[in-house]
Amino acid sequence: MAKAKPAYGRVVLKLSGESLCADGGQGIDPAAVKTIAGEIKKAADTGVELAVVIGGGNICRGQQLAATGLQRTVCDHMGMLATVINALALQDALERLGLEVRVQTAITMADVAEPYIRRRCIAHLEHGKVCILAAGTGNPFFSTDTAAVLRAREVNADALLKATKVDGVYEADPIEHPNAKLFKKITAREALDRNLRVMDMTALTMAIEGDLPILVFNLRKPGNIRKAVLGSQIGTLVE
């Protein structure tokens, strides 16, 4: 039986920090990390070059902390460190499955990870390693969604895969509006104009400028990361 070929040569997968914890919980749930790692392994086995940008909301959310009175810059740096914790947990789980993995951080911390260097990241990807890119952009006031678009453009990814809790992009919040329409395809500019919250404004604007397609899909459905890599008809394509 012929091996399925990926639809993309190189992708960046955006994961939320919440994907690494139990539903409604916080912190890191080893079972959730193991499940996500297994899904990533299925995708990597297609031969696609895969980088992962991960959030830190399961541990620390900068904006929420800032609302308590802490300085926003300090809060955002705390959030960046949370993404590094998640990256190390995911790295360990992926290596247990036999993948070669490199964690690169936008904030230098040489004792635990490599610094993010664009050419080094591309070299790792070309040699079949999974790169986990942590600490956002390394700057406060920028989301990990923006970091994901930035890294995707920097490493010349063919697409950004955004894994979420829902099936794709809806015309309204599907939890509050069960009959909301699911878009199979939409332009990034329309998503921006309609405030559909695919990503924040900065991230979407960068995607538009770089003609970067974004596939939004449900992470909770087994096999969906692999399906996304193979170009199957899932989720919403934003381009």
Strand content: 15-25%
Strands of the biggest beta sheet: in what spatial order?
A: 4-3-5-2-1-6-10-11-9
Ends distance: 33 Å
Secondary structure tally: strands: 11
Q: How large, in whole angstroms, is the Cα Rg?
A: 17 Å
Q: What is the CATH H-level superfamily?
A: Acetylglutamate kinase-like
Shape: globular
Number of domains: 1
Give structural notes:
The protein has helices at residues 30-44, 62-66, 72-96, 118-126, 144-154, 188-193, 201-209, 224-230, and strands spanning 10-15, 49-54, 101-105, 114-115, 130-134, 159-164, 169-170, 182-183, 185-186, 214-218, 236-238. With 239 residues, it is α/β, with parallel strands linked by helices. The protein has a single domain (10-238), classed as Acetylglutamate kinase-like (Carbamate kinase, 3-Layer(aba) Sandwich), CATH 3.40.1160. A nine-stranded mixed sheet has the order 4-3-5-2-1-6-10-11-9, sandwiched between helices. Helix 1 (30-44) links the parallel strand 1 (10-15) and strand 2. Helix 1 crosses helix 3 (72-96), helix 1 (30-44) runs parallel beside helix 8 and helix 5 runs parallel beside helix 7 (201-209). The longest helix has 25 residues, at 72-96. The radius of gyration is 17 Å and the shape is globular.
